[in-house]
Amino acid sequence: MKNGTDSFVSLGHWPSAGGFGFNTDILATNLINLSVVLGVLIFFGKGVLSDLLDNRKQRILNTIRNSDELREGAIQQLEKARARLRKVEIEAEQFRVNGYSEIEREKSNLINATYKTLEQLENYKNETIYFEQQRASTQVRQRIFQQALQGAIGTLNGCLNSELHLRTISANIGILGTMKEITD
């Protein structure tokens, strides 16, 4: 077996004189093999490679078209959203302005209502003071009248004797009798 291996290895040392053998020069054999493989690939794979490249090109173009369409749709949606935002901002500003005017109107109404309430309370207070003054005045008059009446009764009782008392009663009875005759 050693002879078979030696002969195989020794083939690499033979000069190439038209015989078959292995070339152990790596650089020379790789270039030849590479050029043969590339030649075969180009010859047989040209159609397949061009079809693959065309398909890839079509997919890339379709992707670009789709992305352009999506970009246009996104731009349109963005413009619609901006328009809605402007509309909402305008409405918010109107609500804010209307809210402030409504607040001012409510504030004014509240102040006016408070002034009216205070005015009514002042009127009630004045009426109560007037009523209390009238009541106090009436009580004072009644008390003065009672004291005057008691003083008059005391004076009359002190001044009247029984004879004068009987004459006064007779005179009053006479007056009442005359009045009765006139009314009949």
From TrEMBL:
Q: How does it sit in the membrane?
A: Single-pass membrane protein
> Mind telling me which InterPro entries this protein's record contains?
ATP_synth_b/b'su_bac/chlpt
| Membrane-spanning segments | 31-49
Keyword hit for Ion transport: yes
Give the GO cellular component terms, alphabetically: chloroplast thylakoid membrane; proton-transporting ATP synthase complex
Q: Which residues, by range, are in coiled-coil regions?
A: 64-98
- List the subcellular locations: Membrane; Plastid, Chloroplast thylakoid membrane
Q: Listed GO molecular functions? A: proton-transporting ATP synthase activity, rotational mechanism
A family per Pfam:
ATP-synt_B
Taxonomically, the superkingdom here is: Eukaryota
* Coiled coil among keywords: yes
Q: Which family does it belong to?
A: Belongs to the ATPase B chain family.
Extra info from the record? In plastids the F-type ATPase is also known as CF(1)CF(0).
The protein's assembly and partners: F-type ATPases have 2 components, F(1) - the catalytic core - and F(0) - the membrane proton channel. F(1) has five subunits: alpha(3), beta(3), gamma(1), delta(1), epsilon(1). F(0) has four main subunits: a(1), b(1), b'(1) and c(10-14). The alpha and beta chains form an alternating ring which encloses part of the gamma chain. F(1) is attached to F(0) by a central stalk formed by the gamma and epsilon chains, while a peripheral stalk is formed by the delta, b and b' chains.
Q: What protein is this chain from?
A: ATP synthase subunit b, chloroplastic
The source organism is Stylidium petiolare
